[in-house]
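CHAIN AND CONFORMATION:

***
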Amino acid sequence: MASGLPVILSKRCGCAQDLVEDGGNGFLIDPFQVDDIAKKMLQISRLSESERKAMGQKSLKIISRWGCDNFGENLWRAANLAYRHPVERSNRLASLILKYLTSA
């Protein structure tokens, strides 16, 4: 996706719904259906150059939301929120981890 290419991804992958618009930037497949996998591979191989580029651009747009900076920022937000709203019965290790993450 980061290379600007269409993708084929298993429907069983936990991130499938977030990363693939079926037919938009690639295709979702059932990993146990060999015929389906082959069909999707043929579909991609038969795309025109402009169709491939359009799908690739959609892949780039989607994956741009999932970079390291975005991950780090959201991890910090989640840790900070958890630290500010402690659970009554949290364990000491969890509290120390949250304190460490929010002090950076």
The two ends are 31 Å apart (CA to CA). The mean pLDDT is 90.
